[in-house]
Design a protein that fits this description.
It comes from Roseibium sediminicola. Helix content is 39%, strand content 28%. The strands form five sheets. Strands 2, 4, 6, 9, 10 and 11 form a six-stranded mixed beta sheet that branches. A six-stranded mixed beta sheet has the order 18-17-14-19-20-21, sandwiched between helices. Strands 1, 3, 5, 7 and 8 form a five-stranded antiparallel beta sheet that branches. The longest helix has 26 residues. The radius of gyration is 33 Å and the shape is elongated.
């Protein structure tokens, strides 16, 4: 179109500059161009008749998904661009494959990056006219939605179930016999068994050695406490920290349910938000999954003093409390450490922090200029201050789980199983 317009302009200028009869027909190139545009519009304009969209019913946060668009009555060289909602991350413009019946189909990959129900509003189409003089850019209303939920892929796969069952009730249970605190049964003493397990009174009455079998106590209270303040909105590995925390919390809650413990949950930011008393089995997991699916992303600062004091008041029985939170430096963590110390006098705590891989990569990379050197110093200082906080918490008897996003779930479940095996609760 621009080339044709430039050519018409040049011809008009030449005609006017030549003078005489040529000046009288200086308008002719523009008339011809206008007629070509009208003809191109008549030959090329085709309004797509219908749009059909296929979306997955549910997508786990952090996982890829595919959207399928089907448009009937579409031109051959159709391309499109979607207005992506905040919960989905996708590419830019994509093309369609047009069939012989005039139906254009496109499969668009995307990634779920925020929990919630996200609506797809408009699809912008684009195609060229037959003479390449015009470009059509209409939009279609999509009217579809995608539901993004907390990631429970490990629970569905059975990996956690297998790990917990084999650890607590499988071949390793023989090693743990005698280390528990709950009576299970009496059995005849045989060589190789620990003589400390012999019940001497019953052995005297039976006139043969009888040993006690003990097992780990069950029905402990496990509380999952999620800090939902603004620091947990920081993105690590393409997802906010709170979503990594939710994934690990759900996996650990499932492991605790299988392990025979009672699971509850608690959330807080500037003030306490929700609390659910520990409940057994799948009921607790379903409740936790439903609650985390509706957990909003907030931009409020966390009040650790109020939140942890309230949690301490709500849990009179000694419990295993798993705290998912974050801090910036030792100064901002001072109140956090102080209140965790109070909580640790009654309960057993696991402090979960999500490590930033980019920060560690920055430390391991040599700087190229002064700005890089300043960033390296700041990153080193941040890592050292986190280490100081963790050391203080460890001296209080708090178990620290500090790992990268892809390892946080495995590390947390391992810490839980170790606590169960050692009967620290």
């Amino acid at each position: 179109m621009l080339v044709c317009g430039a050519a018409a302009l040049v011809l008009s200028v030449i005609a006017v500059g030549t003078g005489g009869a040529a000046r009288d027909i200086g308008w002719l190139p523009w008339v011809i161009l206008g007629l070509l545009v009208i003809a191109d519009l008549a030959l090329s304009f085709r309004r797509p008749k219908a749009l059909d969209v296929e979306t997955p019913a549910e997508v786990f946060v952090g996982e890829p998904a595919k959207l399928r668009f089907r448009i009937s009555g579409a031109p051959a060289d159709l391309s499109a661009k979607l207005d992506w909602p905040k919960g989905l991350s996708g590419g830019g413009e994509f093309g369609f494959d047009t069939g012989t019946d005039g139906t254009a189909t496109a499969v668009v990959p995307c990634r779920a990056v925020r929990r919630g129900v996200w609506h797809l509003d408009r699809l912008w189409l684009r195609w060229q006219s037959r003479l390449d003089l015009l470009e059509f850019v209409p939009s279609l209303s999509v009217g579809a939605e995608v539901r993004i939920i907390p990631n429970i892929r490990l629970v569905q796969s059975g990996q956690i179930t297998t790990t917990v069952m084999s650890t607590l009730y499988g071949v390793k249970e023989n090693r743990a016999i005698g280390e528990g605190s709950e009576f299970q049964q009496l059995r005849d003493f045989v060589p190789g068994m620990d003589i400390k397990t012999i019940d001497w009174k019953r052995s005297a009455r039976r006139r043969s050695l009888v040993a006690k079998e003990l097992r780990a106590e069950r029905n402990h209270h496990v509380i999952v406490a999620l800090d939902n303040g603004y620091l947990m909105r920081e993105e690590i590995g393409g997802l906010p920290k709170i979503d990594h925390a939710v994934t690990a919390a759900l996996a650990t809650a499932w492991a605790a349910s299988i392990g025979g413990d009672l699971v509850g949950h608690y959330s807080y930011d500037v003030k306490p938000r929700t609390f659910s008393a520990p409940a057994p089995g799948r009921i607790a997991f379903s409740r936790l999954r439903s609650w985390t699916a509706e957990l909003d992303y907030v931009s409020r600062e966390t009040n650790h003093t109020l939140a942890l004091t309230e949690l301490n008041a709500r849990t009179p029985k000694r419990s295993l409390i798993i705290i998912f939170t974050d801090f910036v430096d030792t100064t901002s963590a001072e109140l956090l450490v102080e209140n965790i110390g109070i909580l640790a006098k009654r309960h057993l705590l696991i402090f979960v922090a999500i490590r930033d891989p980019d920060l560690e990569s920055m430390v391991e990379t040599a700087p190229d200029d002064l700005d890089g050197a300043a960033a390296l110093v700041a990153a080193n200082q941040a890592i050292n201050e986190r280490r100081l906080v963790f050391e203080r918490l460890s001296r209080m008897g708090v178990t620290i789980v500090d790992a990268k996003p892809n390892a946080i779930t495995a590390r947390l479940i391992s810490a839980y199983l170790e606590i169960k095996a050692r009967e620290l609760i």
